[in-house]
Design brief:
Order of helices and strands: EHHEHEEEHEHEHHHEEEEEHEEH
Number of strands: 14
Largest sheet: 6 strands, antiparallel
Helix content: 25-40%
Strand content: 15-25%
Distance between the termini: 21 Å
Structural class: alpha+beta
Number of helices: 10
Number of domains: 1
């Protein structure tokens, strides 16, 4: 899962978790029809994703087209025939006193990214053509870059992402699970926001909820007691230090239909880190003091996948 070459003379390598942030993205969650023929079609298609992606990417290498594939727990054994990643399991719903992180179906996940919307469209079209009636679309969300990487709430998203050597250390499974080494856990949630209610708050109130300044993204001091900010609740620290994840969140929506949202996608070496983050947000730390951002963010979906390294994906069915 390495990044693109400096010369950009070849497409971005498949399963590149560290592919660059782009202007457009498609988040596609599919369920697999419960028949042997459907599962065989899915297996052969996943093994050919790198070739299909290359066919589209060569139309414009500067468009940064990439596609990361995730496979869900329920279908892993039947589709891959590979040893199961140690932590792979369905999304665990988190029920708090006021908000719930729901769990929704998902067998296959495609994270398609490009600086050109038409390139994303074409790759999705070709993938679905090959899959045919072997799958059903559980959710399709088109994301876009909003100004300087801000969400629709007005704050820069993903500032705390790891960089440099910290990026693979935080996102890619290592020697602790040799059969899954080089892969990553992927957690996705689709949130919608009541923008009118959020915009009724003062900037200072919004900043207190997020834990950062809105204009320049400078972190605010953590509170010693009482209600913690979102950036504090979503930071996981234990005796081994801070555990980072890679967020490739994107806004989505339609002003005409009154829908405004954020598609959360987190890549992590350890699934439990994201699960702990959601527990702190929805239940609270201490319990009862939930993340106030959830008063303005309602999750519509919740799924977990594992993105195997490219060589394992290519070998499926062989």
């Amino acid at each position: 899962m390495s990044s693109t070459s400096p010369a950009r003379r070849v497409p971005i390598e498949p399963q590149s978790v560290d592919a660059p942030l782009t202007d457009s993205a498609i988040f596609l969650v599919l369920t697999v029809v419960d028949t042997p023929a459907a599962r065989a079609t899915v297996t052969s298609t996943l093994a050919s994703v790198s070739d299909i992606s290359k066919n589209v990417a060569f139309r414009d290498l500067h468009a940064s087209l990439s596609c990361t594939v995730g496979i869900g727990s329920d279908i892993w054994d039947a589709v891959t025939g590979l040893p199961r990643p140690a932590e792979l399991r369905p999304f665990q719903a988190v029920v708090g006193a006021h908000h719930t992180a729901i769990s929704t179906p998902g067998d296959i996940f495609f994270h398609i990214r490009s600086d050109r919307r038409d390139m994303c469209f074409e790759l999705e079209r070709q993938l679905l053509d090959v899959l045919g009636d072997a799958v059903q679309v559980a959710d399709e969300t088109v994301g876009f870059r909003y100004f300087d990487n801000r969400d629709l709430l007005g704050f820069v998203d993903g500032v705390a992402n790891p960089v440099g050597l910290a990026l693979p250390a935080a996102t890619l499974v290592g020697d602790e699970d040799p059969d899954a080494a080089g892969g990553a856990y992927v957690v996705v949630q689709k949130y919608v926001h009541p923008l009118e209610a959020w915009q009724a708050l003062t900037t200072e109130q919004q900043e207190a909820i997020i834990g950062r300044k809105k204009a320049d993204d400078i972190e605010l001091d953590d509170v010693v007691d009482g209600q913690k900010a979102h950036k504090t609740l979503s930071t996981i620290v234990d005796d081994d230090g801070e555990h980072d994840i890679l967020r490739d969140n994107m806004p989505f929506g339609s002003p005409g239909s009154g829908q405004f949202g954020t598609y959360f996608i987190g890549y992590s070496r350890r699934l439990w880190v994201v699960e702990k983050m959601l527990q702190r947000m929805f239940i609270g730390d201490p319990p009862g003091l939930h993340d106030r951002l959830l008063d303005f963010s309602t999750p519509l979906t919740g799924s977990v996948f594992f993105a195997p390294p490219a060589d394992l994906l290519d070998s499926l069915g062989s």
